[in-house]
Design a protein that fits this description.
CATH architecture of chain C: Beta Barrel
Number of strands of chain B: 26
Number of helices of chain C: 5
Oligomer: heterotrimer
Radius of gyration of chain C: 14 Å
Number of domains of chain C: 1
Distance between the termini of chain B: 41 Å
Distance between the termini of chain C: 43 Å
Number of helices of chain B: 18
Shape of chain C: globular
Strand order of the largest sheet of chain C: 1-5-2-4-3-6
CATH topology of chain C: Barwin-like endoglucanases
Largest sheet of chain C: 6 strands, mixed, barrel
Number of domains of chain B: 2
Largest interface: A-C, 79 and 57 residues
Chains: A alpha/beta (500), B alpha/beta (565), C alpha/beta (133)
Helix content of chain C: 25-40%
Structural class of chain C: alpha/beta
């Protein structure tokens, strides 16, 4: 039986493309249209790979052995209630319905609660808390932006359809796609074969050939002064995104703050008394700033290159400050390129229930927020938490070694659909449904627009959703806590009786 | 379901013309009934207490993308107001934008049972509904921002109001909403390229129409659709000195749509649109002009948007207004959030101070309006939460209205220039409990077209608030402080016939309903084809994925209405 | 002149291959091939007297790891070494967060030296070596 399901939402990155066409045969996705390479890898191949966890496991004598769901739930609840201060981490590849129950669990346990935001755009959130942010939904940018700046991010790698769906290569009401011009530009300098290859590349799959070396920073091309859509890329290294841009500016590592500072001066009509900032000649910066000021609507997207470099949230803060300054001259917006498909949702759900987007603590009975104190890596570094639950994330592959080493000193519970690095390290390992493939739910796009994920195939038998697992753990935790209180009461009574 | 009998309370129920009469209120199956079996019913002795319908708030930003961005923006605001988890209630935070659970708890403790969430970007409706689900104890509904929606603009420009009405009906259904909200019509579209409109006759860039066309067009559409509420209008030029003229022009523009039947427009947080003077230095009150107009005309209603002198967070879909506020300086945090093809938004934390002349005059304007508009049925009490101040400051506003003494005490602490400019010393009026009930429940329910709310006559929903106020022994104008305290924490709050607050404490947590309109037009199909065709061009979400589904409303109350087109 | 060691700045980040491979599974050959690698500028590879695809050992104050060295395909990155996000890069990153929660993933100096005889550890070997599980 073949079924074609339209308007399926891709559960991978913050773009949440919702125009996928999925062909399902015998409860299996066999083919899809419109997805990027990463999407195809997950939705056609990855989700049904041999790496799938099909039943709960508990580590006994150093080896993970399959157990019943009830046993695993009990064990997990026991670990969490026995611990003085557990950490619940992850949440970003779960539906917001799961995150919702997660906050309740953290509240019940009086523990720390953090999401992957702390290792991706946590600094961006902090910068927004410092000075706010002028931003817009992606469609606003698609319709209006005639200048697009990608700073320290590589959408071709991390958000493959961002340019095609939301920015330079899409037709808006007031701005047209730049794609044709890009092809024209290539035709000017390359053979037909190369052009075809390049077009193919932009349409999902690409194996870029090695390119000749270029000078560090080229002079701005005359196209920068043209009307119509333009794209500028700032990065420490040339990327595939930089290749399709009108202008690529290679900056020195860790110099973003200085460059933003210089550009802010230029936006505000001040002179700069040096030749180069961060490896970029000031005269080039002047031309870039002119292009920004003369744009009708500009948009800046930034990635982890800013949040993870020296300066961290200060980099974002000054980028936002520059955008604010630009708004005095024209219209400008700035937006973080959020990674996991529902990391924005984690921030959103946590915030409406507690007021805070990440780095939460409930040990006092009320929510507290302090990045640097309640963020996962800081807790692990100081050795504050004595048990960890990881859900829908893989810190095993994305935390520094020493953090995981500290995590390993205490019991670890994991809830993930497949044997990723952290599942392999777990003491209690739960299976879970693939959210957005086997489980419906809500996710928030990088511009915080809620989109409903679809269920397109049935999960393997006996594999529950992570929402159900968290709910069951929560119930079990309540039962164990009630038993403990009762036990305490009886013990005190016994003591008192003896005294009498 | 248990039966309840509230005995011997002083009942204030303006919709049934009951003014502080000692009588019993019987409740059965979630409704007010004539009588119950006294032996089986739970008896509440309300002697010496005031009994009113549960409060109905018609404008309070409690949920949605904008509100939540405000929450995220302000850890500094939450840290001073942490709320501990109890065996019954969830933890959370305040202060100016309380977390969802805390919002429900605090409203309920104040005796409010219904709250309207007045600003929901259609594209972000799912988010708003997810949050509303998490606000317990109160019924709620949302108004969709439609004044700058491209489909509406195009159809109004074409002069095809019938088509426009069908689109709006689709949108109201698709977003599970209750009313048409218009914010700075034309201005938000202009803001897409960083511009604004400055009068109701300015041309909207790229669209062949003016704000006047949008306002009158949508007012007509609202009538065609038989909507229970009027258009809910945030005027152009909000927050600009001299803007009372724009407000009056807007009301005048709507005169032509009025048929003499019931009001056809509602200007929200009108305090922010009642500024006179040419600039901030010459800033003064335009309340008298606005009040005079309202006293002479019956086609409009207003709510106040009272300033309460709090360190609060301003948030509105009026992006250009927030930008101009940011440009005034002194604001470190500024958020702008545009929504494609529909709307925009902005947030700035703002501390209204008594010693600041403009802030103090704004405070005065709100009260002047409430006191100078003679008919309380035209006025609703709001603070435009959280813009003028958080909703749990309402009792302060009540006190300023029912007690001259309370007003004077505050005015004395205000900026001297503001004191000189204030019209308050000339105003003797003091609200009675009856009038207070009108502007907080009876009148607001009437404006919203909620037939079973805002009163406790037979058949009404059993939403009741009991306050520790004895109208026989208390002179509320003189002893304003204990009465203010009584309003801030009801002795009992009853929601749908269930006691949720008892002896000032929450005793039951139950979900509230989300009301939404299923507007049935005579010809629905044509619209969907048109919409589907244009969807890909206009939005970045597929047609199938756009509407809010049943999944997003935990306890829905669908209200079906038949449109006349 | 061939140098023994090269002091360069570490940059970590996403690549499309890593993106595809992580969805195919962390234990997959694709993941190993696309993540247990590092990219160097052709001129730097030459300085070390290496060929494309030879193993190198990268050492930072926080750890050391052996990965396969490749030429960076798009443009000049001399003075830098680029590693795709993943376990191999994490082995040399620090958990110093500057008190804001974000570990140090990039922008610090590391040493690269040829290690043609040392093997690149697989995912499971690396987990065993680092975490004992």
């Amino acid at each position: 039986m073949t079924e074609i399901i339209k308007s399926v939402v891709c559960p991978i990155c913050g773009c949440l493309c919702d125009d996928l066409e999925v062909t399902v045969e015998n409860n299996e996705i066999v083919k899809m249209k419109n997805g990027c390479a990463v999407c195809e890898a997950k939705m056609v191949h990855g989700y049904k790979s041999d790496e799938r966890i099909l039943e709960p496991h508990i580590r006994k004598n150093g080896k993970l052995v399959p157990v019943s769901m009830d046993e695993a739930i009990y064990k997990a609840a026991q670990i969490l209630t026995d611990a003085k201060y557990p950490l619940l981490f992850g949440w970003t590849s779960s539906a917001s319905e799961t995150q919702h129950v997660g906050v309740e669990l953290a509240e019940e346990l009086g523990c720390a609660l953090d999401n992957c935001c702390s290792v991706c755009h946590g600094p961006s959130v902090m910068a927004i808390q410092e000075i706010g942010i002028p931003t817009a939904t992606l469609g606003q940018i698609r319709h209006r932006a005639d200048l697009l700046v990608y700073w320290a991010c590589d959408p071709w790698s991390a958000h493959p359809r961002h340019v095609e769906r939301y920015t330079a290569f899409t037709d808006g009401r007031f701005e047209k796609s730049e794609f044709k011009e890009y092809v024209q530009k290539l035709k000017g300098k390359a053979s037909k074969k190369k052009v075809e290859a390049a077009i193919r590349r932009t349409q999902v799959r690409y194996q870029p050939p090695p390119r000749p070396q270029t000078a560090i920073v080229e002079a701005p091309p005359p196209t920068l002064a043209k009307t119509g859509r333009k794209m500028i890329v700032f990065d420490v290294k040339k990327t595939m995104t930089a290749e399709v841009a009108d202008y690529f500016v290679q900056v020195e590592p860790n110099s973003d703050y200085e460059i933003f500072g210089a550009m802010r001066c230029l936006v505000n009509d001040q002179e700069i008394d040096v030749d180069k900032v961060g490896g970029v000649p000031v005269e080039y910066l002047k031309e870039i700033v002119d292009a920004m000021v003369n744009a009708d609507f500009g948009a800046i997207f930034f990635g982890l290159g800013l949040t993870q470099s020296v300066g961290r949230f200060r980099n974002i803060e000054i980028a936002i400050a520059m955008t604010r300054d630009l708004n005095r001259k024209t219209k400008f917006v700035i937006s973080p390129m959020r990674g996991h498909f529902n990391v924005t949702g984690a921030n959103t759900v946590f915030a409406w229930q507690t007021g805070y987007p990440f780095a939460l603590d409930f040990s006092q009975g009320y929510p507290q927020y302090n990045p640097g104190e309640f963020t996962a890596n800081d807790l692990l570094r100081r050795g504050d938490n004595d048990a960890t639950l990881v859900i829908s994330a893989d810190p095993g592959a994305h935390f520094p070694k020493s953090s995981i080493q500290n995590m390993m000193k205490h019991p670890l519970i994991t809830i993930n659909p497949d044997w990723n690095a952290i599942s392999r390290l777990g003491d209690v390992v739960f299976p879970a449904q693939w959210c957005g493939i086997e489980q419906a739910g809500t996710a928030y796009r990088m511009d915080s627009v809620a989109i409903s994920l679809k269920k397109v195939v049935e999960a393997p038998k006996g594999v529950p959703s992570d929402e159900e697992i968290i709910k069951r753990i929560l119930n079990k935790v309540r039962v164990i806590k009630a038993q403990k209180t009762r036990k305490d009461v009886t013990e005190t009574k016994n003591v008192e009786n003896k005294k009498i | 379901m248990t039966e309840i009998l509230i005995k011997n309370g002083f009942v204030v129920d303006p919709l049934n013309k009951i003014d502080c009469q000692k009588m019993d209120i019987a409740i059965k199956n979630g409704r007010i009934v004539e009588k119950v079996n006294e032996r089986e019913a739970k008896i509440i002795d309300a002697s010496g207490l005031t009994v009113m319908a549960g409060g109905v708030d018609l404008h309070s930003h409690i949920a949605g993308s904008e509100v939540n961005l405000g929450r995220m923006l302000r850890p500094d605001d939450h840290v001073k107001d942490a709320v501990r988890k109890t065996a019954l209630t969830r933890a959370g935070t305040g202060y100016s934008i309380p977390s969802t659970y805390v919002t429900g708890y605090r409203y309920s403790k104040m005796g409010y049972t219904t709250v309207m969430n007045p600003s929901m970007a259609a594209m972000k409706a799912k988010h708003a509904h997810e949050e509303l689900n998490d606000i317990p104890l109160i019924d709620k509904a949302s108004f969709t921002l439609l004044g700058d929606w491209w489909f509406a603009l195009e159809n109004i420009a074409k002069g095809d109001l019938v088509e426009c009405a069908r689109h709006i009906a689709w949108m109201i259904r698709a977003t599970r909403s209750y009313a048409i909200k218009i914010v700075n019509p034309g201005g938000l579209e202009s803001w897409g390229f960083g511009r604004n409109v400055h009068s109701i006759d300015d041309k909207v860039p790229n669209f062949d129409l003016t704000p006047r066309d949008i306002i009158t067009g949508l007012a007509k559409v609202n009538t065609m659709l038989n909507m229970p509420h009027t258009i809910h209008l945030h005027t152009n030029n909000l927050g600009v000195p001299g803007n009372y003229k724009t407000a009056i022009e807007t009301m005048q523009a709507l005169e032509s749509v009025y048929t003499g039947d019931k009001p056809i427009g509602h200007i929200t947080h009108i305090q922010f649109c009642s500024f006179a003077g040419d600039n901030w230095a010459h800033f003064k009150s335009g309340a008298a002009e606005i009040a005079n107009y309202l006293n002479a005309h019956n086609h409009m209603t207003i709510d106040i948007g009272q300033v309460t002198f709090a360190d609060t967070t301003t948030m509105t879909a009026d992006g250009p207004f927030e930008f101009s506020l940011y440009e005034l300086g002194g604001h470190n945090k500024w958020v702008n959030s545009d929504v494609e093809t529909e709307s925009s938004g902005g947030i700035i934390p703002f501390h209204f101070k008594k010693k600041n002349a403009v802030n103090a005059i704004q405070w005065s304007i709100g009260l002047e309006l409430s006191l100078m508009v003679k008919d309380p049925w035209k006025v609703a009490m709001t603070t435009d939460h959280p813009n003028g101040g958080p909703f749990y400051h309402y009792p302060r506003v009540f006190a300023w209205l029912y007690s001259r003494k309370a007003r004077e005490a505050t005015l004395k602490k205000c900026n001297k220039k503001a004191q000189r400019k204030s019209l308050l010393p000339t105003l003797d009026r003091e609200y009675t409990l009856y009038e207070l009930a009108i502007i907080t429940r009876a009148g607001t329910a009437k404006m919203l077209g909620l037939k079973n709310k805002g009163h406790i006559g037979i058949g009404a929903e059993a939403d009741v608030a009991i306050y520790n106020i004895n109208p026989n022994t208390t002179d509320i104008a003189q002893d304003y402080k204990p009465v203010r305290k009584a309003f801030s924490n009801a002795i009992y709050t009853i929601k749908d016939g269930e006691i949720v607050v008892k002896d000032k404490e929450l005793v039951t947590i139950r979900p509230g309903r989300t009301m939404w309109l299923d507007v049935q037009t005579k010809e629905p199909c044509r619209i969907d084809d048109e919409l589907k065709r244009k969807f890909k061009e206009y939005w970045t979400i597929e047609f199938d994925n756009y509407p809010v589904t049943d999944h997003y409303i935990k306890v829905p109350e669908k209200i079906t209405i038949q449109a006349s087109v | 002149m061939v140098e023994q060691k090269l002091r360069v700045t570490l940059i970590t980040g996403r690549t499309i291959d890593q993106g595809v491979a992580k969805e195919l599974g962390k234990g997959s050959q694709e993941y190993f091939d696309s993540v247990a690698i590092c990219f160097l500028d052709p001129s730097d590879i030459k300085k070390l007297g290496l060929k494309n695809g030879v193993n190198v050992q990268i050492t930072s104050p926080y750890g050391s790891v052996v990965v396969k060295a490749k030429k960076y395909p798009y443009g000049a990155i001399s003075g830098m070494v680029f590693m795709p996000c993943g376990l191999w890069a994490n082995a040399i990153c620090s958990d110093e967060t500057d008190s804001i929660g974000m570990p140090t993933f990039r922008g610090f100096t590391v040493e690269v030296e040829p290690a043609p005889d040392k093997p690149v550890l697989t995912l499971d070997e690396l987990l065993k070596q680092q975490f004992g599980k």
